[in-house]
Amino acid sequence: MKSTEKKKNPYLLSFKESRAIIKSNMKAMKTYEKRKRAKVLPEQYTTVMKNADNVLEIEDLHTYFFTDNGVVKSVNGVSLEVPRDKIVGIVGESGCGKSVTSLSVMQLVQAPQGQITGGEIRFNNDTLGYDEKGNHKCYDIVKMPTSAMYGIRGKDISMIFQEPMTSLNPVFTIGKQLDEVILLHGENMDKEKAKAHSINMLSLVGIPMPEKIYGYYPHQLSGGMRQRVMIAMALSGSPKLIIADEPTTALDVTIQSQILDLLKKVQRQSHAAVMLITHDLGVVAEMADYVVVMYAGKIVEKGTVFDIFDNPLHPYTMGIQKAKPSFSADKKSGHEQQDLYSIPGSVPNPINLPDTCFFKDRCDRCKECCSGGYPREIKVSETHSVFCHLYEDAE
Amino acid sequence: MLKYIVKRLLLSILILFGVSLIIYFLVRMMPMSYLDTKFSAQIQAGTIKQEQVDAFKEIYGLADNSFLGILKGYFVWVGNMLKLDLGVSFVHSEPVGKVIAEHMWVSFFIAFVATVLQFLIAIPLGITSATHQYSVRDYSVTVLTMVGISLPSFFFAALLIRVFASGLGWFPVQGLVSGGASYSGIAYYLDMLWHLVLPMIVLVVLSIGGLMRYTRTNMLEVLNSDYIRTARAKGLSEKKTIYVHAFRNTMIPLATLLAGILPSLFGGAMITEEVFAIKGIGQLAYASLKQADIPFIMGYNMFLAVLTVIGTLLSDIMYAIVDPRVKLGK
Fold first, then answer.
1. Which residue of B has its CA nearest to A173?
2. For A227, which of A164, A338, B83, B151 could close a Cys bridge (C-beta 3.0–4.6 Å)?
3. Is residue B59 part of a domain?
4. Same domain, B204 and B294
């Protein structure tokens, strides 16, 4: 018994350890906060796009949270592209870093604990022209100071949030909150013009009697209506990229399909690219052109929607596809309900990530080589790539 | 809205009756009697007899201390009050209403200035300490205001008197007007203000802490809410986000504080007034408690009760004004 008592509980931090964590966190948070507030010349945060057809290129993005228990690597080296006029779906279970990725693009990660610590987010808003080599110039959001972000948020990149019930300010009317966007970003706007624009936006998203709703307070609208208002708000500045962070999760099923149809419709009309974050595979299959699957802060597989759904390669992608509820009851055995499949095990502790593939302990196709190092990106086809040791020979 | 207010006012009459009944019984059950204290020396010296004191008690209506006797006394008091007569104070030998009206305004002036200063200082402090959470600024503001809230008023007042009055001699030790001087007009009021600086500092320093913590907590909660993220995502600057979108939401819970402000404005600060020997209503109330001046204690407490009831009603109405989600029902 004595030996077990003396054994250190790995889940408990000693006073010394926790002091050291807090100290290093304070230091890190201070440096990153300072960087966001520093006066930086525009040249220092412009760079060039790899592909001028993309609206957004994220490369090796790291977003960490400095918590009292240690550094949580929420987004740990994510690279993805969002092409013009396309919908890119990001899927993964709760806590895999998909929301944090999208908030990083807006620089809206909960500061000071959450900070973008590395990588590049290249955003192409087509106003910067070309450099001498003929490359398309763009902004690097990671290096941008917050003051420069004010001009991009709402105007070039806008966001639709998960909780329409709480995402609108309860003490201001719908109209005031909508006007704000266009008054902020529109050129020579006055209150009259802004009101006309906002009412136009409300009718665009299918809100009946937009003049009346304009004067309503958020609590007078239903959840679905509020999400339409959020979409109207997102479209108001005619953005190049719309980030929809689980736009239907908080809505009931009938409203979900309406909102998704609306989102697809406005995307086609405005030709904005959409980054659609969801954990609903059905939504992705319906909406997206490209799919990115994330697990524990890293991308495990990405490709076109056909690549991912017809030919899933990563065991995790296969697992979540199997975990969908199925209603194709076997006729021979009557209407017997199948047990819902779930992937065994749980996600590794984000503070102490292993040196191997993060999915190794839950994988049913685990091999010996899985113990060595995190797998590199393996391009299976032009569009389809996977991070898994199983396909190392397939290249 | 009007219907609601009328209903509330009618209800508050009922509440006030209940309050007065409880206060009257409590006051009568105090193990102290005005007359016994007053004549104790004479009784000991033998110049007055116990029978004579008892006769006096009969006249004052304090003779019968049984339940029915107190109840009877209460109905007499209520009957007089309905005729707007609060009785005559034992100590001051003047109608209670007049005594309160005379001494209320000094207390009101101190409390009013202190409350305004308190709000002007505490709310901005709360906001900066919320927007700079866990920073050096946050910690220093929190520590300083906590020190303020933890100081007992008599101790802090004595400290101020020691340093600024008897030590540095910047302010008078106590009182409301300079002894011997006969100022008139503006000079009189300036002299009075000079006397009131220290009591006001005591009241402000002691009350900032609570309000500042309240603002800070509310602000933090609002700043972490989804609609603030929406406001930021629109491209609003941090300043606009905080002072337009977060500020009004932070102020909503503060509307409840209105309920407590009204009685504290007129009720006087008992201990502070006592320490600085200011003849405000707080000091009078303290003195009357010590001497069991039943009419005055009753009058004073009913005055506070009325103010509290009105304050609560006002804060409910304020709620409906600042928060569009709140509708005052029937």
1. B324
2. A164
3. yes
4. yes
